[in-house]
């Protein structure tokens, strides 16, 4: 089975480093990005899963997620929102995300959310 690819977009370098280590240790191929410009690659080379921080350089990750999930070209992408927002379940649902991970996160919670998103039909 081919290694699954996960793209993580977060403007916090420490979070990127941590998630990168966790996912690589779990056997995933990880691509990381610090801002929305890194999403331009998604259409050309879609990952199996996209993790997007809800706050990116003053832009809303939920808005980006919504745009991806409502575009015919990218609606098939699996997307998880990552955030410390207190109403994250409602935010993720409104954005049409496939799930969410609340910050601060437990390693097992992150890995379970990733596994569930990747295994969803």
UniProtKB/TrEMBL annotation:
Highest taxon, organism lineage: Bacteria
Stored InterPro entries: Bact_response_regulator (IPR050595), CheY-like_superfamily (IPR011006), Sig_transdc_resp-reg_receiver (IPR001789)
SMART domains in alphabetical order: REC
Keywords from the named record: Phosphoprotein
Modified residues (4-aspartylphosphate): 53
Family annotation (Pfam families): Response_reg
Ranges for domain Response regulatory: 5-118
GO biological process, one term: phosphorelay signal transduction system
PANTHER family for the chain: RESPONSE REGULATORY DOMAIN-CONTAINING PROTEIN, STRESS RESPONSE REGULATOR PROTEIN 1
Protein name, entry field: Response regulatory domain-containing protein
UniProt source species: Mucilaginibacter pedocola
Lineage: Bacteria, Pseudomonadati, Bacteroidota, Sphingobacteriia, Sphingobacteriales
């Amino acid at each position: 089975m081919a290694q699954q690819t996960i793209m993580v977009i977060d403007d916090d370098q420490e979070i990127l480093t941590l998630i990168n280590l966790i996912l690589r240790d779990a056997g995933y191929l990880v691509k990381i990005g610090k801002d929305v410009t890194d999403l331009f690659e998604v259409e050309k080379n879609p990952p199996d899963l996209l993790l997007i921080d809800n706050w990116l350089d003053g832009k809303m990750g939920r808005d980006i997620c919504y745009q991806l999930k409502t575009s015919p070209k990218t609606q098939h992408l699996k997307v998880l929102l990552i955030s410390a927002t207190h109403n994250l379940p409602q935010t993720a649902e409104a954005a049409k995300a496939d799930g969410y991970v609340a910050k601060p996160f437990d390693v097992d919670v992150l890995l379970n959310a990733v596994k569930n998103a990747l295994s969803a039909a």
